[in-house]
Design brief:
It is a single chain. 30% of the residues lie in helices and 27% in strands. The protein has 13 helices and 17 strands. The protein is globular. The termini are far apart. The mean pLDDT is 92.
C-alpha cells in the first residue's frame, strides 16, 4: 500500500519530489495558494489555501498519512493543535520550533555550542535610539539585518553601513530583527543533511555557493575545503540533527573565513536550493532522501557520480509571461547539462524560474568558471551577467 504524503507548500521544491515519489510509490497531496503553483501539476490532489491556513491543513490531514513541509512559513501554534489530535508532521513540530524565528534559531545554535557570528535582537517597539547604538557598538558596521520571520531569497535581509540607515529600517518596518556582525568570509558553503526516524544520518558533499543580493546564483559541488573542515561541518550537522531529533532533510548554510574558521549562518528545515545539484549528480537526490526519511524508509547513498557539478539558478531578470524556450534550448545543448524548468507562469526580477546542472568529468576550476560564464551569457542580458566567479 502506497504512502500518501501531504506537503504544505506547492512550489518548485515540492515539484522536484515527483520522480522520487513515483519511484518510491508515494502519493503527493499539496496545500498551496494557487492552481498555477508548480507542484499542482504532479500532485495526486491539491488544496488551494495559504500555507499558514491551519483549517486547510486539517483537511489535508484527512487525505494523507504524514504531512511534511516545503517551506517554513507555517502557523506552528495552530499546527500543534492538530498534532495533539494525532496528525503526523515530519519533521516534527518540536524540531521546527527553534528554527522558524531567525533570532531564536541563532540562540539555539549558540546554546548548542555551534560556532555562529555575533548577534543581537532589535525591534522598534522595545529599543530606544541610545540603547540601539550601545548594542550595535559591540558588533561594528557594517552589520547584517534580517527579518526574524518570513524572509527568503534576500527578502527581509539588508547589509547596513551606518546607524542612520539601520534606525530607519527598524523604525519604519515595525518588525523584529536579527542583527549580526558582517562576516568577511572567504567562501560561502552549504550542506544537505538528512536524518531518518531511526536516527540514521547521511550528509551530502559540502558545496560552495555564490549569493548575489542574498539570492543563490550558483553552486559548485564539491567545495574545495580541507578534510578537517569537511569533518567539522559533518560534526555540526550530526550535533544539530540529533539535538533536534530531526526527521527529514535540512540545508545548513555556512561561512568559511579567511582564517579557515567555519561559522553556521542559517538552517533551512526542508530541501534547499544548495542541494539541487543532487538531482543529476548523485545516486540519490535530496528530494528522494527527504521522502525516504519522512516515510520511514532507509536512507541511501549521497556520493557524487561525477568529478564535480555546477548548478546555476535561472533567475528572472524582467517582468514577463514568456517561457524562454529559445534560451532553454541553448542551455540544454550544453554537453552533460540538464535543465529543470519549474513551469511558473510569471517571471519577475530575482524569481527562481528554473535551474541547470552540468556534470564535469574533471574537477577543473577553469572549466567550472567557463561553464558558469557560458550559462549566464545565454540566460541573462549582458549587463546582468555575474562576474563573481570562483
Amino acid at each position: 500500500m502506497s504512502i500518501k504524503l501531504g506537503i504544505i507548500g506547492g512550489g518548485q521544491l515540492a515539484w522536484m519530489m515527483a520522480d522520487a515519489a513515483n519511484k518510491l510509490g508515494v502519493k503527493l497531496i499539496v496545500q498551496t495558494p494557487s492552481p498555477n503553483d508548480p507542484a499542482v501539476s504532479i500532485a495526486q490532489d491539491s488544496i488551494f489555501a495559504a500555507v499558514d491556513d491551519a483549517a486547510a491543513t486539517e483537511i489535508l490531514a484527512t487525505k494523507c498519512d504524514i504531512i511534511t513541509f516545503e517551506n517554513e512559513f507555517v502557523n506552528l501554534a495552530a499546527l500543534s493543535l492538530l498534532e495533539k489530535q494525532g496528525v503526523y508532521f515530519r519533521p516534527q513540530l518540536a524540531a521546527l520550533a527553534p528554527l522558524l524565528d531567525k533570532y531564536e534559531q541563532r540562540c539555539y545554535l549558540r546554546d548548542l555550542g555551534l560556532p555562529v557570528p555575533h548577534f543581537l535582537a532589535l525591534s522598534a517597539e522595545q529599543e530606544q535610539e541610545k540603547e540601539i547604538k550601545s548594542q550595535i557598538e559591540s558588533l561594528g558596521f557594517p552589520v547584517v539585518v534580517k527579518a526574524r520571520r518570513h524572509g527568503y531569497d534576500g527578502q527581509g535581509t539588508f547589509i547596513i553601513a551606518d546607524f542612520a540607515t539601520l534606525a530607519k529600517i527598524v523604525n519604519q518596518s515595525h518588525s523584529q530583527f536579527l542583527v549580526e556582525e558582517f562576516v568577511p568570509f572567504q567562501r560561502e558553503l552549504a550542506i544537505i543533511a538528512a536524518r531518518s526516524i531511526n536516527g540514521e544520518i547521511v550528509i551530502y558533499p559540502a558545496v560552495e555557493t555564490c549569493q548575489e543580493n542574498q539570492v543563490c546564483r550558483w553552486v559548485i559541488a564539491p567545495a574545495k575545503i580541507t578534510k578537517e573542515q569537511s569533518l567539522e561541518i559533518d560534526a555540526i550537522a550530526n550535533k544539530l540533527l540529533n539535538s533536534l531529533q530531526y526527521v527529514g532533510v535540512c540545508g545548513i548554510e555556512l561561512f568559511l573565513t579567511a582564517e579557515g574558521k567555519i561559522l553556521v549562518n542559517e538552517i533551512a528545515p526542508r530541501t534547499h536550493n544548495s542541494g539541487h545539484f543532487s538531482l543529476d549528480a548523485c545516486e540519490t537526490s535530496q528530494f528522494e532522501q527527504h521522502l525516504r526519511a519522512v516515510c520511514g524508509l532507509a536512507l541511501t547513498n549521497t556520493t557524487l557520480n561525477c568529478a564535480s557539478a555546477v548548478m546555476v539558478n535561472l533567475l528572472g531578470y524582467e517582468s514577463s509571461h514568456g517561457d524562454y524556450q529559445e534560451q532553454r534550448q541553448q542551455l540544454a545543448d550544453i554537453p552533460q547539462a540538464t535543465v529543470h524548468w519549474y513551469g511558473k507562469t510569471e517571471a519577475r526580477p530575482g524569481r527562481k524560474l528554473g535551474h541547470i546542472t552540468v556534470l564535469l568529468e574533471q574537477d577543473n576550476p577553469n572549466a567550472i568558471k567557463d561553464i558558469i560564464h557560458k550559462i549566464e551569457s545565454i540566460w541573462y542580458p549582458p549587463d546582468q551577467i555575474c562576474e563573481n566567479f570562483p
